[in-house]
């Protein structure tokens, strides 16, 4: 199909040039995001695997860190992935990582990780895709919570008085491995394309470009900005009108889709008693562990997963909302509410 390659071994599906089992691990994306969905990926994968036919195309129109797409393509859960993001820096990063891999690895290796370079990239407005990709990677790995735009400063502060310095989340050897894994996926024919654009236009583009695929052979995954504090966390946040527009788009979407949010009563109301062309919309709640900033205590925050998949397997990882009126979290996932720098506790990521 589409000339993609990959092999099965005793250890599972393998992509040439990628360490065995790499895509089944937690830490596979070169980018880090506030409210990262890496802990939700096993749930998304289980939902996809429980439904037939398996997707020949997995579309992620708000790709961000793209962990879900990388995991599903790298484990052969989905045959090809189509990535998109409205942020031109993020879209450029994934395009260069996939199709100009060694340039990005070399540029990353040569880049000094200093506060001066952080200031340079914060002010820079590159037009070339390569420079946009490098800016995205540098700021994402050196800025508080990986935030590319707005208020956030460098990890450790401008005076670097913190024990956690600006390069604590910039392990170059590890990042080179992750970037090369993206390139290997593309070389294996698993990355169909990467574009910059609005999610609605991306879905229209997918139907135009892959007209022969049946509706149930395409799965769309969207991870919109958090309802609360979205403007503080993301360069392209959603307002109430945008959350409503997304709900309307998905009601008329013919493809199978999954949607993840902070558990918020406004979002539950948008999708309560709703159907899409793909079927009845189900609501699932997943409890996600995290470490709050400033202390070692492990707590949990709720994530809302909505989908029109016909089959929802029983799992200890989530519970299905039986009644649309069931009380939702009043504001947002606690995990998102904690904006402490994760480098203190997750240097590997």
Identify the CATH homologous superfamily.
Answer: Vaccinia Virus protein VP39
- CATH architecture verdict: 3-Layer(aba) Sandwich
Strand order of the largest sheet: 5-4-3-6-7-11-10-12
- Kindly give the count of domains: 1
Structural class: alpha/beta
The CATH class is identified as Alpha Beta
- Helical residue percent? 25-40%
Biggest sheet features: 8 strands, mixed
First CA to last CA: what distance?
A: 33 Å
Quickly count the helices: 12
The H/E string reads EEHEHEHHHHHEHEHHEHEEEEEH
Rg for CA atoms:
19 Å
Here the CATH topology equals: Rossmann fold
Tell me the total number of β-strands. Answer: 12
* Overall 3D form: globular
Overall pLDDT metric: 85
Instruction: Show unreliable segments.
Output: 291-296, 328-348
Question: Approximately how much beta-strand content do the residues carry?
Answer: 15-25%
What is the compact description of this entry?
Helix content is 33%, strand content 17%.
Question: What would you note in describing this structure?
Answer:
By secondary structure, this protein is an alpha/beta fold. It has a single domain, classed as Vaccinia Virus protein VP39 (Rossmann fold), CATH 3.40.50.150. Helix content is 33%, strand content 17%. The chain has an 8-stranded mixed β-sheet, sandwiched between helices. A two-stranded antiparallel ribbon has the order 1-2. The protein has a two-stranded antiparallel sheet with strand order 8-9. Helix 2 links the parallel strand 3 (57-60) and strand 4. Helix 3 (88-99) packs across helix 7 (172-187). It is globular and about 55 Å long. Residues 291-296 and 328-348 have low confidence and may be disordered.
